[in-house]
Amino acid sequence: MIREQATDKRPLRTIRHDADLLVIGGGLSGVCCAITAARAGIRVVLVQDRPVLGGNASSEVRLWVLGATSHMGNNNRWAREGGIIDELLLENLYRNPEGNSLIFDTILLEKVVTEPNITLLLNTAVYNVTMAANGTGHIESVQGFCAQNSTRYELAAPLFCDASGDGIVAFQAGAAFRMGAESSEEFGEKFAPSTDYGELLGHSLYFYSKDTGKPVRFVPPAYALDDITQIPRFRSFNTSDYGCRLWWLEYGGRHDTVHDTETIKWELWRVVYGAWNHIKNSGQFPEAANLTLEWVGHIPGKRESRRFEGDYILTQQDIVEQRHHDDAVAFGGWSIDLHPADGVFSEKPGCNQWHSKGIYELPYRCFYSRNVSNLFLAGRIISASHVAFGSSRVMGTSAYGGQAVGMAAALCARQGRLPRDITTEPKLLNQLQVALLKTGQHIPGLRLQDEQDLMHQATLSVSSEFVLNELPPDGPMMVLRHSAGQMLPLSKGPTPQCTFWVVANQETTLVVEFRVSSKPQNHTPDHVLERHEIHLTKGRQPLQLAFAEPMPYDGYAFICFLKNDQVSVQCSQLRVSGIVSVFNKTNPAVSNYGKQEPTGDIGVDTFEFWTPDRRPKGHNLAVHLEPGIRMFGRENVRNGFQRPTNAPNAWVAAPTDRHPTLTLTWPEVKQIQEVVLSFDTDFDHPLESVLMTHPETASPFCVRDLVLCNDQKQRVYELTNNHLSQHTIRFAQPISTRSLSIHLNAMNGAAPASLMEVRCYPLT
User: In this structure, are residues 388 and 380 in contact, taking their beta carbons and an 8 Å threshold?
Assistant: First the structure.
């Protein structure tokens, strides 16, 4: 028994943690920042004020992870974010294709707690910041409190990263910030919203329902909204939408989205329970008789609050014009996605989206405070205007930026530098970019050039190389209810002759266009090189196409069949790395072709959306090519790219090769300590984390099993059940060999065997 005599005041138990980097905020940006820094070799304390990690992606909010590629519609091909966020989403696909948010919680927790360099503090809210006494704008420590164990934490580090969403540390440290929308005049942004539209995005609260198999009644709580007609979109309620499909149940943009969050939450509870009362008790939804509320969020998903100023502020022009930045460390690709401040009570559409024609670069200068010297920024609080924030705020992009911060922090910690030093010293910036590229962090336009990589001294030989002579006509017939296009990687110059197969229900004219992108790095078919109007007779027939126009650059071309519901085109079951078909479809809930409201002239061209078929076993269009396309050779594994960009960038074996093998040979014996392998995990698949289900647990293009052998044909390593993009082999003792052969024994699907990259490092 413990007994203490009463005193006026008892001090709280206090525990001190010192680290190289302190990360505040356990959403995806903070998680990816912490893991990246820890794997780079520095000590990290990760502080999260909730019982689980993931922020808006956690089981507490249950929003799916969105980024530069999306099932909801854009023209960004192979644009899923790489590095740690890619690892998390692929692990979630493998374990949790059903999209259970609770399972995603466990994956995030496992990845963090198994990193020996991370100390995780859950349920711990940071409430105070101690600054250096010399007035240098330098944070010395922060204080946090955990109500679960009644413990106060004193947390000190030379470097801090605020990934808290509202910027609690940055705000208390006096970091310069903005809140609300800028005028269109400040940055010349034509998307800047009017006062009528509103200057802040609100919060959303989600709910899940389930069928109990028997009638369930619902008695609404007293605080439920009793007049559903206050919600202009109430007529769109239905029993099939739930969870983050109801993202437009949004409110709070007219409030202080930091300090009024509890008020906003109560209003959203009123809306959710009022909406459910309408569904259950209005008599308009008899199919809802057996439904019950399974879950309603207790904390809202927050979109916007403070945005802190770095040495550069990202603007609309950076996104729409795809501006180049020498200090690029990440990319974005979500639309500029603005919502009316009145949210669910607005007469306006739930969102207005304007899509860039490709991904855009995120400069490093957006990821640290301009006036707090040792403070990094990550997540939705990075340095961006309100308009640019409409794109950069989504979780995939936020996590990707967090990884850049984690690597930058590791570089600063090892060399005793501050965040701004990386910008001012080109050598440090190059080290940061190279380090990120080595982890699989694609940076637009940058090629990995690593002088330590022994691959560049090796001679490569392979058992076979794929030549795209044909996507065989062995798939289903597809009616051209939407325009369809086959993307093909071509070299600059004459285009191959193409033969497709079609069936016409009646005599008709089919329009076929040869298109490319106006920028070689993009995948938007916005430039028509040649147009053919082809007379078809009734029945099945080959369609032979010879294009007079040459391919203007090395990149992807589009053979587009325009909509004609009297015509079906033959598909192929063959799936190959770097090859995809696309369709001119839109998601009417979000894609509006750059519709001009609310700001009038938006200043950019509208364009067509061409997206892949997301159904299981999405097919290519069957085609015969003469001459065949030879862009899948062995040299791709050391060209510095780990994903398709304007080329497949993969070595692909012939489909008939039963023992696909890549062999590296050196003129003398090498002492090899480490081998890094990169695989094709279909970066075109967005891998939404919750609610959306997935037909596969691993990418069919990804190598599942492989074996490494030395020059004596002895097995030195075996990998089984792989489903990740990158695998690093670190030998306990360096192996001495003049050659390494990589035998690809099994794939995760029926696609031909492929490798994106191989790197080898000597004993150091």
Answer: no
Residue owning tokens 């934490």: 153
Buried b / exposed e along 650-674 (16+ C-beta atoms within 10 A): bbbbbeebeebbbbbebeeebebbb
Are 621 and 726 contained in the same domain? no
Nearest-angstrom CA–CA distance, 37 and 23: 10
The tokens of 499 are what? Answer: 């033969």
Which of 485, 570, 497 shows the shortest CA–CA distance to 528?
485
DSSP 8-state assignment for residue 31: H
Which residues does residue 179 pair with via DSSP β-bridges, in sequence order? none
Q: Are residues 144 and 36 in the same domain?
A: yes
Both structure tokens of 624: 């015969």
pLDDT tens digits along 599-611: 334 444 557 889 8
Q: 726 Cβ partners below 8 Å, 6+ apart?
A: 87, 439, 440, 642, 676, 677, 678, 679
Give the end of a domain, one of 248, 281, 302. Answer: 302
- Bridge partners (DSSP) of residue 511 are 533
Q: Which residue, chain included where needed, has tokens 């001294």?
A: 457
The verdict on 227 and 370 lying in the same domain is no
Q: Are residues 277 and 328 in the same domain?
A: no
Q: Residue 666's domain spans which residues? A: 454-464+633-762
> Quick one: how far is CA 293 from the chain centroid?
31
Q: What is the pLDDT of residues 526-562, one digit of tens each?
A: 999 999 999 999 999 999 999 999 999 999 999 999 9
Instruction: Clarify whether residues 207 and 257 are in a common domain.
Output: yes
Q: How many domains does the chain have?
A: 4
- As a whole number of angstroms, the distance between CA 82 and CA 67 comes to 11
| Whether residue 153 is found in the same domain as residue 20 | yes
pTM: 0.96
In whole angstroms, how large is the CA radius of gyration of the chain?
A: 27
